[in-house]
Every structure is written in C-alpha cells, then in structure tokens.
Design goal:
455 residues, alpha/beta, 16 helices, 17 strands, globular
Length: 455
C-alpha cells in the first residue's frame, strides 16, 4: 500500500484520524491538545498509515516522534495550558499563554539570534546564519514548514506563528553579495523548516540564482530535509517529482556538488518500499545522501537500533554522517540522555557495523561554541574525565583539539560540564564563554566570522 495524495493533520482535525478515534483515550487526546497548543504539531497520512504500529502506539517510536506527549512539557506548563483549555479560554488568551511558555523553553539555543546572524553593509541578514567559516545557512520563506513535525525539533519556533522568532530570507541578491564578500564560504545549506516542501519551480529559482551567480568559492549546495522519512513521494509520485530530480542533476551538471542531508531517526523510516525507491532515484542524479539524527530517549536510545539504522542506510547507498544529542530547547528533558549513556550507545552501535558504516561522527552537541563531540570517558591519574573535541567551531583553530571535562554521570549538555584538572575555564572560553549571556563583549567580534578575536 502506498500513499499518493498528501493529507495533513494538525490540532484542528487530528481527532478525525481513524486510528486516533479507535485507539486513544479521551485523556490522551486532551494531552495532545494541551501540548500541541505550545509545541508545533503536524502529521500526515503516510506517517500515520505506513510508519506507526497502532497495535502498540504508546511505545511506538514514530508515534512519539510525531504526536505530542504529556511528558514533553514541564508540569507547571502543562497545568497552565490545561486549565486554560478547560475554562474555554479564547484564542487570544491561549496564544498569550502559549507564547509566554514558549519563551521559557529556550526557543533559539546556542546563540542563534545573538551570534549567528551575519552583517552586510550594516544590515543584519535575518534569513541567513553564518556560524562556521565554510558554511552559510539560508532560510527561504516558502520552506518554513515540514511534511510533518518532529516533537524534538530544535527549529520548532519557526512553526509557532511567532514571527519575531523566525529566520527567513527571500532576497538571494543579498545572500550572493554576502558570499562574494566572504570567500571562505564554500557551502550553502538550504534549511528551515524543510526546503523540499517547496514546489520545484520555487526551489529552482533559489538554486539557479546561486548557480548563475558563478561564485568561484561555492562548491557545495546542501539540502537539509526530512522528506525521505516523512514524504518520500516527493521524489517518486508527486506531480513535480521528475522535475525535482532533473533540478538535482542540473546542480551537479553545473559543477556544484549536491549534498542531500537526510534526517532518519529510526529504522522504521527506511523499511518502506517507496523510501527505497526515492533513495535510488535521488542517487541516480549524482547527488550524495548523508544521514543524521539525534539520539533520543523514547525514540532510538538503543545501540541495536542505531546499528540497524546505519546498516540499512549503507545498504541503500546513504552515508551515515552525524549522531547528535537532543538540543537544549523545547522538549529536551523528555528526549535527553546523559552524555555517558549517549556515548555508550554510539560506541556499542559502532562496534556492530563494518568500516563503511563508521563514517558517522558523534555523539555531538551543537552548542554555542560549536559542534562538540564526546569521544569517551576515561581515567587520567586519579580523575575520571570526559574526552571531548570540536568537530566544528566558531574559531576554526578549535577543531580536532582534544580537551577534558570532569566526569559527571548526570550531565546532558556542554554547559553542565566543568573543566578537568583544576582548570577554571575550558580553553575556548577566552573567546566564547559558556556563560556568554553575562560576559559576551560584542566589541570583540570578528565580523567576517561572527566569532571573538583571539588575544
């Protein structure tokens, strides 16, 4: 059975889904309404009919991945919204309550608003992020949604209707000018949301603008997308699927590498026949598919699950790329694992696969200073420590430089760690303090990179 016509379900109509009517209790439906009034909720018929095991939905990872759960909110936040719904509060009041709670959920982690927005001739470019030297993120406004929403998504503010929290840019000319003035940029990452929710004719305008600009430093165009997991029909049976694949070929024909950055969170997303067909069609264009996911409690917190997922990806022609840690935003408390447990899952899964699947790097935190990989736990003298390194950093000199943190079995994020061996600060904190909210000095910024000047 395949799904050809895309149908979407949100808070307005999810109760009409046959599987919901048949299986869920009134309390579970109410929980979805409470949480879904704060965190974005959207699912589609492919996910419902092809990916979720409704005979065991409460434990099903794809159900938890797409349907809001009561435990995704703190008790006080849940109670506040629940009381408002029970009292039949109006839409305006519900929105006020929701927005107040959202602002308490760290809507833009890792300094995205403060330190990632670049400057061009005195103007902040609101639809661009430039955190790492080689890579510029571009947020087309038509791509600020997804085929379905992941309950863990760190981009959740894009989907809440709070315009002040959105990143979006329609003006490719300014983006092109910015790339010209920053020759160290080699990669553009189209992100959102999901750029592949756009019709091909719209995506083509954006891609062609960068290609036709003949930027000598532009070598790679990346597409960050969950479409393979949530709507593989986009590449097989959608009305403009063939046109989309031809667009991919045209990027490669222009001498620019097309990197398809796929998000697979569980092996279930790789088992349908249509996703396998979609993968094959994409690879035929010359694009390369790299796959990534956070490791998450309730979804994929098992070495066997990860080993199976990496093996299925390799057999399909995809390259395992990143294992992330759940970012410190939104429902992090529901999904987060201690750093040591995440590393153990990575290590045990890594041991189960052959060398061609060991391209994956992780577990990695996309923190303020950069992507920090947990290399392991070890003893140095009488002290147990985490061994860490930057995979990417605001300062490129930080990359691949090992450093050490005191062992903390409860720590789930970088800012919970303390330097080992009696040091007061990590080596990078002279440029980017972990407590940057209190101590950051904008006068020290390198405007071309968005990082602080070294002394």
């Amino acid at each position: 059975m395949t799904e050809r016509e895309y149908r979407v379900y949100t808070l307005r109509n999810f109760a009409s889904i046959p599987q919901i009517e048949k299986n869920l209790t009134k309390e579970e439906i109410f929980d979805i309404e409470v949480v879904g009034n704060i965190l974005p909720f959207k699912v589609n018929n492919y996910v419902i009919n092809q990916l979720i095991d409704w005979t065991n939905y409460r434990q099903d990872p794809i159900y938890r991945l797409t349907f809001p759960q009561k435990a995704m909110l703190q008790k006080r936040h849940y109670q506040e919204m629940a009381e408002a719904l029970v009292s039949d509060a109006g839409r305006a009041e519900l929105k006020l309550i929701a927005n107040k709670i959202r602002m308490e959920l760290n809507p833009h982690p890792a300094g995205q608003l403060e330190h990632n927005l670049p400057d061009l001739n005195g103007e902040k470019l609101q639809g661009i992020q430039h955190k790492y030297r080689e890579t510029m993120l571009f947020f087309p406004p038509q791509g600020q949604t997804c085929h379905a929403y992941c309950t863990f998504c760190f981009r959740w503010p894009q989907f809440t209707g709070m315009n002040e929290l959105k990143f979006a840019m329609r003006d490719t000319e300014k983006a092109i000018e910015y790339i010209r003035s920053n020759p160290e940029i080699t990669d553009i990452l189209f992100t959102g949301g999901d750029p592949l929710v756009m019709r091909t004719r719209i995506l083509k305008k954006y891609l062609n603008a960068f290609i036709e600009a003949d930027l000598p430093n532009l070598r790679t165009i990346r597409l960050g997308t969950k479409a393979l997991g949530y709507w593989p029909q986009r590449f097989v049976s959608d009305s403009d699927a063939d046109e989309l694949l031809q667009l991919f070929r045209s990027v490669e024909d222009a001498g620019i590498h097309l990197a398809f950055m796929a998000h697979f969170n569980h092996p279930a997303e790789l088992r349908t026949s249509i996703v396998q067909k979609a993968i094959s069609r994409i690879l035929e264009t010359g694009a390369v598919i790299r796959s990534q996911s956070p490791v998450m409690r309730h979804i994929n917190d098992s070495a066997d699950v990860w080993a199976e997922m990496w093996q299925l990806q390799v057999e399909s022609g995809c390259i395992p790329y990143y294992m992330f840690l759940a970012r410190d935003t939104g429902a992090q408390e529901y999904f987060a694992l201690p750093l040591e447990q995440a590393w153990e899952i990575y290590r045990e899964a890594y041991q189960q696969v052959s060398g061609i699947a060991r391209t994956v790097r992780g577990p990695s935190m996309s923190a303020g200073p950069g992507k920090v990989q947990v290399l392991g736990v070890t003893d140095v003298g009488d002290e147990s420590v985490f061994v860490l390194q930057f995979i990417q950093g605001r300062n490129p000199d930080w990359v691949a430089k090992p450093f050490f943190a005191k062992y903390d079995p409860e720590a789930i994020w970088l800012d919970e760690l303390k330097p080992a061996f009696g040091k007061e600060r990590f080596f990078f904190e002279s440029e980017f303090p972990l407590s940057w909210e209190d101590s950051w000095d904008d006068s020290e910024m390198r405007p071309e990179l968005g990082v602080a000047e070294s002394n």
